[in-house]
Specification:
mainly alpha; 544 residues
């Protein structure tokens, strides 16, 4: 059982030895005048390093089995997401019995600041590494030092703001908690580009293992600390262990090592790419939280709790589907930039899978909103049901809209992505401002209307400079939309006539959904072709 400890010790030992050798060679070289011969030798060294690390940058081998790697990658990411969710739930159940709400409240106070700062840690440079069709050792090295520098700077700024955080919440304990959590950022900065290289090579299995083991190790550390009476510091340690473990594990799995920072290696365009992506994420973050801000300000915490719980419950299953697909789609589509037909085929299959899974699921949850709320949350949350139903109508098109992000990123069009983010955020916030006058139902309704108004312009604007055709996407969406509508009305008809208990309603509705799918498969040639294509894709069978 001591083997992992010895391995970790060995990693640290080797890391410090390599660092010491590197620094010694660097200072020895810089202390001597550089002749033309030495400069040529340095160029040879850089060339040798670029050749040594070629396996991390070259992606031509991925195209031979891009479909298989995508399916396996999506499976790994989804498995990692679900496994991490289950482990976190178990940890929460254990820690909640040791710690107090006050301990969690302290961390939640600081999370308001740290979650906002997290948007700027990456600056979109990891996606720049993933997206580029060709990239060099020198470019990734430059991005590594930029990421690390930004992460250290954010950590310093956050630590400097610690007294202000403590003053704002009137709790002196937050001073050292904020300073400690600021250490997450430098640790995270050390593994951003290494993680990007693994994504570029579509090594999602390794990343999923690192994610799950990080959650497990951090949970064990937190439980031991909590049992030792460290209270809220156990939660601080849990958050610090995850980036520390990621740094150790990713550097071990990805043995690429950065060269020194250099100007003139072509990183400027990649920084513009990342800057636009960060700008979009900022606008998206602002618009996604504007509804909570307005409800909390004008309607109070109780109604905010009802609204937020409905939104979180609805998004929980959808994120387990859309996140893995989108995460795998970016590197896969990036490899197909110069193959328009291959790009189209991949994207159309992705849209088809997402639509056939999420649209019937959302229709199912919308019509059973009362039953889902009562079963999952209990009688005290019954008032959440109408909001849940309205938000379900808003979410009906969201998974498809979310696929525009991978298109923007993979085609290098983050400048257009940022412009759309500004426009859509203004429209969404405007909808919230109008809806707040009519309560939480008004906010949810206004949000749903804005989603439908923006859907078509979003697709048209996104596909304008890409191989994807708007008309083809709409054609693909027609069968799953009709299937979802039929399913909705059949379940609604069943509920109106039977009036069963929540659990029985859900069981009967599942049967109706299965029969509806089988009937559509038998009667519709298009649905039959779509289902067969998805089935073959997951079996990784190649068409002749």
């Amino acid at each position: 059982m001591f083997c992992p400890v010895f391995h970790i010790f060995g990693w640290f030992r080797q890391f410090f030895i390599d660092s010491a050798k590197f620094l010694a060679e660097f200072f020895q070289k810089t202390s001597q005048p550089k002749s033309d011969l030495k400069k040529r030798k340095q160029c040879i060294v850089l060339s040798n390093k670029s050749e040594k690390y070629k396996q991390f940058f070259d992606t031509t081998h991925l195209k031979a089995d891009l479909k298989g790697k995508s399916v396996r990658g999506g499976t790994f990411v989804m498995g990692g997401q679900i496994s991490s969710c289950v482990v976190r739930l178990g940890l929460t159940m254990v820690l909640a019995r040791i710690l107090t709400p006050d301990d969690y409240g302290l961390i939640a106070m600081v999370a308001v600041v740290t979650n906002f700062a997290m948007m700027f840690k990456d600056m979109g440079l990891s996606m720049a590494t993933v997206q580029r069709s060709e990239i060099t050792h020198e470019q990734v090295s430059t991005l590594f030092w930029i990421n690390l520098g930004l992460s250290v700077l954010i950590g310093i700024v956050l630590a400097a703001l610690a007294p202000l955080v403590a003053w704002f919440y009137k709790d002196p304990r937050l001073l050292f908690v904020t300073i400690a959590l600021a250490g997450m950022f430098p640790l995270s900065g050390l593994s951003i580009q290494h993680s990007a290289l693994l994504i570029r090579q579509m090594r999602f299995g390794a990343l999923s293992v690192i994610q799950i083991t990080g959650v497990v190790i951090s949970g064990i550390v937190a439980m031991i600390a909590a049992w030792q009476g460290m209270r809220y510091w156990s939660l601080v340690l849990m958050q610090l262990v995850i980036p520390l473990w990621s740094f150790i594990a990713i550097w071990w799995i990805c043995p690429w090592r950065p060269a020194w920072f250099r100007l003139g290696v072509g990183a400027r365009s990649m920084m513009l790419f990342g800057g636009n992506l960060t700008g979009f994420n900022f606008m998206n973050y602002f618009s996604r939280n504007a509804d909570n801000l307005l409800i909390g300000k004008f309607l109070g915490t109780q109604l905010l709790g009802l609204y937020d719980k409905a939104y979180q419950l609805l998004m929980l299953p959808l994120r387990q589907i859309t996140y893995p697909v989108s995460n795998v789609a970016v590197p896969a589509l990036s490899r197909l930039q110069e193959d328009p037909e291959g790009y189209q085929r991949y994207y159309y299959k992705m849209i088809k899978i997402i639509a056939y899974i999420t649209m019937p699921l959302i229709a199912f949850m919308a019509v059973l909103s009362d039953d889902v709320i009562l079963l999952m949350l209990g009688e005290q949350w019954r008032m959440t049901s109408p909001v849940f139903k309205i938000l379900a109508f808003a979410a009906f098109l969201q998974p498809v809209s979310a696929t525009t992000g991978p298109v923007f990123i993979s085609m290098g069009l983050t400048n257009r992505m940022f412009r759309w983010g500004v426009f859509s955020s203004i429209m969404t916030v405007l909808a919230f401002v109008i809806g707040i006058k009519f309560g939480i139902k008004g906010v949810a309704t206004a949000y749903a209307i804005s989603c439908y108004i923006l859907f078509v312009p979003n697709l048209i604007y996104t596909y304008a400079k890409t191989p994807v055709k708007f008309g083809k996407v709409i054609q693909i969406l027609v069968p799953p939309v009709l299937l979802s509508v039929v399913l909705y009305f059949l379940i609604e008809l069943m509920k109106y006539n039977l009036h069963q208990e929540e659990m029985l309603n859900i069981i009967i509705s599942i049967g109706i959904a299965v029969l509806t799918g089988m009937l559509a498969f038998c009667l519709s040639r298009q649905v039959r072709a779509d289902f067969t294509g998805i089935y073959q894709l997951f079996l990784m069978k190649k068409k002749s």
